[in-house]
Amino acid sequence: MSYERVKEYFESIDMGERVMVFEKSSATVEEAALAVGCEPKQIAKTMSFMQKEGPVLIVAAGDVRVDNKKYKAEFHQKAKMIPWEQVEEQTGHAPGGVCPFVVKPGVTIYLDVSLKRFETVYPAAGSGHSAVRLSIPELERYSGFMRWVDVCGGGE
Questions:
Q1: Dihedral sign computed on CA atoms, order 55, 108, 84, 149
Q2: What confidence score (pLDDT) does residue 107 get?
Q3: Segment 51-60, tens digit of pLDDT
Q4: What are phi and psi of 133, to 5 degrees?
Q5: How far lies 124's CA from each of 35, 79, 90, 129, 151, in Å?
Q6: If you write DSSP's letter for every residue of 27-38 in order, what string do you get?
Q7: 88 Cβ partners below 8 Å, 6+ apart?
Q8: To pair with 9 at 20 to 30 A between CA atoms, which of 65, 125, 127, 141?
Q9: CB contact at 8 A, 66 and 119
């Protein structure tokens, strides 16, 4: 199960105590914010897309949406979300628990600039009942991201 792999990863870097598990679902931004006890915008949601080169994950603030024009300008192709039933096969994590940690080989991770306004964010930890508390520098360090992008709009 992907939660166990993510938990093991954080334990291997002496950050296992940052991983949180909830009885109630944290699969949506709203549910995660209630479970964590933060504002929805601080949830670092991970969205999965299929590009010509393979699957990509974009981690963004919980209060923004992908802007199709920005996405196309950044990646030179239309935003095409991975179908729900293929997400786990493509990324290594099931919908609701997709996160930028311990992903399948060949998955490229990008962080959206919408996250930069926060000191602390809460991405999922491999299941729809988990999250991990990270600073932005920690998210950069432990996600293995390729680079920062500006592909979302909305939010504050």
A1: negative
A2: 98
A3: 999 999 999 9
A4: -90, 120
A5: 11, 22, 17, 8, 20
A6: -SHHHHHHHHTS
A7: 2, 94, 95
A8: 65
A9: no
| Phi and psi, residue 55, nearest 5° | -70, 145
pLDDT digits (tens, 9 = 90+) for 56-88: 999 999 999 999 999 999 999 999 999 999 999
Token digits of residue 78: 């239309």
- Look up residue 124 and give its two tokens: 């999922």
Assess contact for 35 and 148: CB atoms under 8 A. no
Residue of 72, 70, 94, 71 lying closest to 84 (CA atoms)? 94
Closest-CA residue to 120 (of 70, 62, 78): 62
Lookup result for tokens 């995660």: 32
